[in-house]
Amino acid sequence: MSPSNPKYELGGINHLALVCSDMRRTIDFYSGTLGMPLIKTIELPGNLGQHFFFDCGGGNSLAFFWLADAPDASPGLAAPKGLPDEGELLSGVGSMNHVAFAVPPELFDEYYERVAAEGIKVSRVLNHDDSPRGVSREVHEGTFVRSFYFQDPDGVLLEFACWTRKFTEADVSHEPKTAADRTVSAGL
């Protein structure tokens, strides 16, 4: 049984809004390559730009802004520079690190092959567990999610993930870090 929210009745994510540099290329990738139906398009007033929505399953949407005056991407600051299995996970405070799409566990391996067959660079499969490294080569009793990562044409980090077990109270066991625990690179 999932924990309930005593304050608000939330039904998941309505949509996550990202920014793209080329809406046509974004449609080609999300609708063409990943098969997500384009469900709503909006022209923003004052030639500001566009806002398009894709159905990503389960009643959830992924949305993109194309903004005429959007600054260029800042890999390593606004989003990771590459794939997590290459050691690239860093992004700045307030950034959107990645979007993880839920996929059926029984289709996970097939989907990995299909995404790679599209010519998209994919990470190795990561079997996330509670070991010191956080991942294992093989699925085992401690594996809680399997995933692989790839990027869209603008460098947005995407993940296909499937849960492999139900969580228990024992899965919430770490002391939260605070702002005082951060180390900030001298270059920022």
TrEMBL record:
InterPro entries: Glyas_Bleomycin-R_OHBP_Dase, Glyas_Fos-R_dOase_dom, GlyoxalaseI/FosfomycinResist, VOC_core
Every VOC domain range: 12-163
Residue intervals passing through the bilayer: none
Gene3D superfamilies on file: 2,3-Dihydroxybiphenyl 1,2-Dioxygenase, domain 1
Superkingdom as given in the UniProt entry: Bacteria
Cross-referenced Pfam families: Glyoxalase
PANTHER family tied to this protein: GLYOXALASE FAMILY PROTEIN, METALLOTHIOL TRANSFERASE FOSB
Name under which the protein is recorded: VOC domain-containing protein
Native source species: Nocardia macrotermitis
